[in-house]
Structures are given as structure tokens and as C-alpha cells.
Design a protein that fits this description.
The structure is a homodimer.
Chain A: H1 10-28, H2 35-46, H3 52-59, H4 63-75, E1 79-84, E2 87-95, H5 97-118, H6 123-142
Antiparallel strand pairs in A: 1-2
Helix pairs in contact in A: 1-5, 2-3, 2-5, 3-4
The first copy, chain A, binds a DNA duplex through helix 1, helix 4 and strand 2.
Protein name (chains A, B): Transcriptional regulator
Chain lengths: ~150, ~150
DNA sequence: CGGAAATACTCAGTGCCCTGACTAAACGGG
DNA sequence: CCCGTTTAGTCAGGGCACTGAGTATTTCCG
């Protein structure tokens, strides 16, 4: 007995929120380029020539996932991937003209989508919304490496 | 030029929030049973004998995804799946003793994890947090079928 | 200088998540 | 009663996300 009320479970809400966003992105922004892919393009507009790992860090993706995303973008010719001559382990990433064009196009569509997505909230509520989510996510992320603050000593 | 600030993009925040939760779940709740799997167990505790589609509806998963999740739970012997004698299309789902036990065990761990996850927020902030996310997610979900409120006529 | 440790990336494996196309069962009106 | 429509579930295919193991390169230290 005693089933839990999932509407008070942040994990469940986070999943539902992301699904809702995924859906809206698909219909209002792009069917080819996903939201994580856009985040990568965006990071490279801000800082061209980043290596794979750092891009992953910027957008919040682990080494495996970022490798897949980049391989797809590269396959579609949206970015170039070249060995760093100074450090043979790294790949340096840079948008192609086509990649930059895609980023520009999606930027305006994304802004439109965000308006629709956030329509149920007032301006003040949006600020609070961002702040609360950011605080929870940041805190949980900080709970990672540093000496394993949780019971299990690994 | 003009890279966007992703910290004001709800989709990006939602993804980061979910990742943070995934991580915490893994370390504090279970490595075998995932959060969506727990949601399914929970739905069946509340309403035993539901069919697959309805469970999916309750926890917010489409028919394909719910089929995979259920197949995994069934493989591990946490639930039984039998043809509805009254309607040969449906499968009726019911937790096994082991499934019910798993649900009980995870329920207490989940509560502990939620405390940690929400620790950065005060009690009032948590209420707001739930409310805002729910409103955004519900609104976006409502934006689905009904006559396609968006440009594209399908 | 040479070997151990750290670092960037790859690869295999698992699970979630969606769409679109398909099969089988049930339903409903002529 | 039969045929068309709806409905439950399956299957193939693409993408995101993580872990753990493995490779190559660089770095650091004795």
C-alpha cells in the first residue's frame, strides 16, 4: 500500500518538463537539430576552437555523450574537427559557415519557442523559475567528486 | 556572433536538472531500478491490474517507451503481464511480491534522496518550485493534439 | 632521460525517449 | 454479418545519457 504522489517528486517533474520541452522543440524549432546539438553550436559560437572535453563541460555532457553529438554535427558538416598540433590528444572544434548559419537560424526560433513554453508564467515567476532550478541543479552537481559526501565510500 | 545565454533557456535547465537527479538517484536510491521504473511500480501499487497504455499515461511515457520499461521489469520478475480475457489486445499488469517489496524499499530511499536534492530550497520555495514546473509542463502537454494550435497543419 | 600518472578520446553495453509503420483484436454501422 | 475504423501492442530506427574499460599522448618526477 501507500503509493507515492509523484507530483511532489522533483525527479519526475524534471522528466516531464524535459519531455514537454522536447516536444515543443521538435514542432517549433527543428526536427533535424536537437536542443543539445544547438547547445554545442552555441558554445562554439561563444568560444571557437574549444576541444571536445571543454565543450562537454560548457553544455553539461559527459565525454561519451559529447563525442556522439559532435560526430553527428560533424557528419552533417556543421563543424570541423582537427587534431591540436600542440597536443595530439585533443581535437579542436570550429563551426563551418553552414554551422554558423544553422546557429543563427535556430537562435531566433528558440527564442520564439521559449516564449510559448514560458507563457504560463509571469515575468517575475520566470525569474524565480530559473533561479530555483539553477540552484537545485548546481547543488546536486557540486555533490559529485569532492571526497564522496555520501555514505558509500565507493 | 551573439551566442545565447543558456542559463535562461528552460529546456537546457530542464536537462541539467534531470541529469543531476539521475546522478543522485543512482548513488542514493538504486543502481538497478531507475526512476521511470519506480514510477511504473508506483502506478501499479496505486491501481493494480492496469493495462500497459494506461500505465504509460499515468507516468507520462509513450507506448514504445512504456513497453521497454515493462519488459525490463517483467524480465526481473517484478511484475506479471497477462492477456486480458475480456479484451485480447490488452495486457493486464500486476506487481509480484518481489515487485511490491522493491517498491516499499525504494519509497523510503526516494524520500531521503528528495530531501537531499531539495536541500538548497526552503519549504516555501519547494512549493513554488513544484507549482511552476507543473504549470509549464502541463501547459506544454496541453499544446499537443487539440486541432494543432501551431502553424503547421500537420 | 625514463617510467608512472594524468589526460583526451574511443568503444561496448544499458537504459530512456520519441516517431512512424505494422499486426492483431474489438467495435460499430449498414 | 461484414467491412471499415479505432485501439493495444510490437518493431525498426534515431538520438540522448551514463558507466567502465581500453588506447594514445602528454606531463611530471625521480
Amino acid at each position: 500500500m501507500a503509493a507515492a504522489d509523484l507530483t511532489t517528486h522533483p525527479g519526475h517533474l524534471a522528466r516531464r518538463l524535459q519531455q514537454a520541452h522536447y516536444l515543443l522543440w521538435n514542432t517549433m524549432v527543428s526536427e533535424e537539430t536537437t536542443s543539445p546539438q544547438f547547445a554545442v553550436l552555441n558554445a562554439l559560437v561563444a568560444e571557437p576552437g574549444l576541444d571536445q572535453r571543454t565543450v562537454g563541460e560548457r553544455v553539461g555532457l559527459d565525454r561519451s555523450t559529447i563525442a556522439e553529438v559532435i560526430s553527428r554535427l560533424s557528419r552533417r558538416g556543421l563543424l570541423d574537427k582537427v587534431r591540436d598540433p600542440e597536443d595530439g590528444r585533443r581535437f579542436l572544434l570550429r563551426l563551418t559557415e553552414e554551422g554558423a548559419r544553422t546557429h543563427r537560424r535556430l537562435t531566433v526560433r528558440t527564442a520564439r519557442m521559449n516564449q510559448v513554453f514560458l507563457a504560463p508564467l509571469t515575468a517575475e515567476e520566470r525569474t524565480v523559475f530559473f533561479d530555483l532550478i539553477r540552484r537545485v541543479a548546481d547543488a546536486a552537481e557540486g555533490l559529485r567528486d569532492p571526497g564522496d559526501p555520501l555514505p558509500a565510500p565507493r
